[in-house]
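Entry:
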Amino acid sequence: MSYGDLLSEEELLALDEIVRIPHGHPGVLLVDADGAARDVLATRLLDQGIACATVADGEQALALLLERPGLGLLVTALPTHDSLALVRQVRQSARATLPAIILSADADVQDAIDALHLKVLDFLLQPVDPSVLVTLIRNEIGAPPKKPPRRRGRPGEDARRERMTLVSA
């Protein structure tokens, strides 16, 4: 059973707005019990143009992971489920091929081996370089790189500035 079976179109649109993943767009579900860390990482992903929803516990995560995200980004220390158990449940569902990345601050070798057996995309130790994580996510869900901000000014102004710099050097 999915949300589409229970909710009206209006309710589905409201849910899409809340979780910040546009309907039909592959996004990331970030699952982390640490609210501050979750918000920082979610903001980083959103700033990079990656649609992102966040939840704090395994029960909410499982419901959403089984619904639509293009990738699950899980942190190992969760209050109601551990990340490996969550991935196991997803692997036994209709979303068995959902890519998942696990972040861990205190993993052991057995956790990494178990994650590989569950075919997670990657098992990363925290702290993780955000640019590495963003690249990994983009490569998996096909999110285009964020375009650099456009400079304001007259057309050709940057080229003139560059020529002036080269001439005066």
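The helical segments are 3-6, 9-19, 35-47, 58-65, 83-91, 109-117, 130-141, 157-168.
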